[in-house]
Amino acid sequence: MTNRPSAQAPTRTPQRLDDAIDGGIGESPLRPDGTLKVRGEFAYASDLWAEDMLWGATLRSPHPHARIRSIDIGAAMAMAGVHTVLTAEDVPGDNIYGLKTVDQPVLASDVVRYVGEAVALVAADHPETARRALERIVVDYEVLTPVLDAERAAHDEDLPKLHPDGNVVRHQRILKGDPDAAADVVVSGVYTVGMQDQAFLGPESGLAIPAEDGGVDLYLATQDLHSDLKQTARALGLPPEKVRMTMSGVGGAFGGREDLSIQVHVCMLAMHVGKPVKMVYSREESFYGHVHRHPAKMYYEHGATRDGTLVYVKADQYFDGGAYASKTPVVVGNATTLGVGPYVVPNVRIDGWGLYTNNPPCGAMRGLGAVQPTFAYESQMDKLAAELGMDPVELRVRNAIAQGGTIPTGQVVDSPAPVAELLERVRALPMPPERDTTDIRELPGGASNTTHGEGVVRGIGYGVTIKNICYSEGADDFSTARVRLQLLGGEPAAMVHTAAAEVGQGLVTVQQQIARTELGVERVTIHPNDTSVGPAGSSSASRQTYVTGGAVQAACQAVRDVLFDRVVERFGTAVGLALQGGKVVSAEGVVADLAEVLGDDVIEETREFHHRQTSPMDADGRSDLVQVQHAFSAHRAVVDVDTELGLVKVVQLACAQDVGKAVNPEAVLGQIQGGSAQGLGLAVMEEIQVSDGKIRNPSFTDYLIPTILDMPPMEIDVIERGDDNAPYGVRGVGEPPTISTTPAVVAAIRAATGKNLTHTPVAPEHII
Question: 612 exposed, middle or buried (CB, 10 Å; 0-12, 13-18, 19+)?
Answer without folding.
Answer: exposed
